[in-house]
Amino acid sequence: MSSLLIRKRPKPTINVVPLMDVLTILIFFFLVSMQFKEMTTLNLTLPSIESAGKNEFPDKIQISIDEEGVIYLETKPVGVDELKAVISQLSNLSNEIPVLIRAHNLTPLETVTDVMDACRLNGLSKIRLQSR
């Protein structure tokens, strides 16, 4: 019985090279198709055009609050009452205007909630808080 041929099975192996190729192609695909975030920290000096008309609807309202609680509408410091009046006028134009609130991390929470309440009470509900 020693004349029986014993077949040896080859050890199973996993060929990793095709897997690495597919992984590389997937990484390149995701890198190329990613949506890049809009950079808003560029310091650009734009030319002024005196004959240009103003947009009736702003694309967004940016409200900033510093660490002492001073409220800035775009770049102009305003009081809470003045901010409420401006938001009321803008909400009469459209309730779809987004509001971006940028607050310093040491800003009192009460000031931030006052600004959010002023927006919501006037019908502006698209509020975003920006953090770093």
Q: Specify the overall morphology.
A: elongated
Q: Strands of the largest sheet, in order across it?
A: 3-2-1-4-5
H/E series = HEEEHEHE
Task: Write down how many β-strands occur, each being a DSSP E stretch of 2 or more residues.
Answer: 5
* CA-CA gap between termini: 79 Å
- The stretches of 5 or more residues where confidence is low (pLDDT under 50) are none
Main sheet attributes: strand count, strand direction, barrel closure: 5 strands, mixed
- Report the mean per-residue pLDDT as an integer: 78
Number of helices: 3
| Radius of gyration over C-alpha positions, nearest whole angstrom | 30 Å
Indicate the proportion of strand residues: 15-25%
Please estimate the helix content. 25-40%
Structural write-up:
The chain is 33% helix and 15% strand. The protein starts with 16 loop residues before the first helix and ends with a strand. The protein has 132 residues and is α/β, with parallel strands linked by helices. α2 (80-93) runs parallel beside α3. The chain has a five-stranded mixed β-sheet. The longest helix is centred in the first third of the chain and has 17 residues, at 17-33.
